[in-house]
Amino acid sequence: MPGKVKPITVNKQNGAVSGRKAMPLADHFLQNSRNQAIMIAAHAGYRRAEIAAYLSLTHATISRIIQIEKEKTALFEKLKNKGLFWSYDKLVTLNDVGDKIFIEHLFKYADFDDIVEAFKLYGSRKLYKEWVSELKNDLRFKKLNLFLARVFFGMDVEADYFQGGASDREKKLRLLAS
Asked: What letter would DSSP give residue 175?
């Protein structure tokens, strides 16, 4: 039964090994998104095979998810060290910020190579969805949106394509003004 494993923990300060009763595997998936729960369960001592059996996935799939999540975290740390998240606490993590805000900041402020790396990690569907919902109608980023649409999303559009709908920011400002 994968949910009743008692992982062994190692104290990083003194190297002591001790067993402790961990949260059942199922509880990790109730409190977190699937990929976050996989990462947390793996750090809590559950083996990849146990996680895979619980989710009815292959061991290779779990390994790939863990690898991608580590790469996402590495990209986040790289951008955080470049100063893209200057207004956040220095100890903030990707889980604290969330994918939505991370992707928005990535589009707005990251380098071309970082955006390419994000496409490898998140996939074009997820990035397109976030771009449409968060950035596309923001007229402050008209040139950036034109660039993203043409280069990354393969759209044959002109600048007037972005004249359409009002952004959430614009709607909020109109409400405040009235």
From this structure: H
Q: Closest Cα to residue 97, out of 109, 85, 107?
A: 85
Q: Running along the chain, 178 residues long, what does each successive block of 10 average in pLDDT?
A: 50 49 80 89 91 94 95 94 82 90 93 96 95 85 90 86 64 75
Full DSSP string of 120-167:
HHH-HHHHHHHHHHHTTT-GGGHHHHHHIIIIIS-----GGGGGSSPP
CB 85 within 8 A of CB 97: yes
Q: Please compute, for residue 136, the number of CA atoms within 13 A of its CA located in the half-sphere on the CB side.
A: 16
Q: What is the pTM of this model?
A: 0.75
Phi-psi domain of 47 (left: phi exceeds 0; alpha: psi -120 through 50; beta: other): beta
75 burial via Cβ count (<10 Å: 0-12, 13-18, 19+): buried
Which run of H or of E encompasses 58?
none
Burial 98-136 (b: 16+ CB within 10 A, else e): ebeebbbbbbeebeeebbebbeeebeeeebbebbeebbb
Residue 81, burial from CB neighbour count under 10 angstroms (0-12, 13-18, 19+): exposed
